[in-house]
Amino acid sequence: MRYPEGKRYCNTEADLHQYMLSLKLVPCPHCGRTGFLIGHGFLRGYSETEQEHVVRGRRFFCSNRHRRRGCGRTFSVLLSDVLKGFMVRANTLWNYLKKVAGGMSRRAAWEQTRKSFSRESGYRLWQRLNKAQTHIRTLLCRQRPPPASSSDEPLFQLMDHVNCVFPCASCPFSSFQGSFQSSLMG
Predict the structure, then answer these.
(1) What is the CA radius of gyration of the chain?
(2) 54, 79, 104: which is the final residue of a domain?
(3) DSSP code string of 59-104
(4) CA separation (Å) from 152 to 51, 101, 148, 155, 160?
(5) Is 186 among the domain residues?
(6) Which of 7, 38, 108, 114 has the most CB within a 10 Å radius?
């Protein structure tokens, strides 16, 4: 689902808080009514490294309580470094791909990047990113044509393209999500 007027991703928790403060001016992505959105709690999940809960985003509710005319549905706004549906962050995935592009095997790169996750997690992320390439490339091509790449591997060409669109970003994948307001994994 696409949220036309609102956001799906915020870069930092401070941006998420600012979005919360301007919520009464944002139309509901479901019904389009303005003035009925309220905060509905934080989205929390496990961190990558420890067994502690961290903030991953925030839920919002279009209130239909007490004779309000909202639709009663909720939607979420995530932090841009969160990969929707994964504990792994966008920066971890980017570092993993950089190591594989540098010549390491996928297994060795994953074990060096994240030792707390199983090897199969790295392979699943690789496959999901492979499947999402058309979605990602379509959005990137709206900004800039793909650069010439010396690699035959499509994911490495995608990395070059993301780097070309976001040259100064510390994590181009989280910049992609924050800029395009679209999930990296489709």
Answers:
(1) 18
(2) 79
(3) EEEE--STT------EEEEEETTBPTT-SSBHHHHHHHHHHHHTT-
(4) 39, 11, 11, 9, 12
(5) no
(6) 114
Residue 128 lies in a domain: yes
Place of tokens 């181009």: 172
**Model pTM score:** 0.83
pLDDT in tens, 148-182: 888 888 889 999 999 999 998 889 999 998 889 88
Measured CA to CA in angstroms, residue 27 lies from 3, 12, 32, 36, 79 at distances of 10, 22, 5, 8, 20
Residue 7 CA, distance from chain mean position = 12
Confidence of residue 2 (pLDDT cuts 50, 70, 90): very low
Q: What is the tens place of the pLDDT at every residue in 107-128? A: 888 888 876 788 888 889 899 9
Residues sharing a CB contact under 8 Å with residue 179, sequence separation 6 or more, in sequence order: 166
68 and 15, same domain (yes or no): yes
Q: Is residue 13 part of a domain?
A: yes
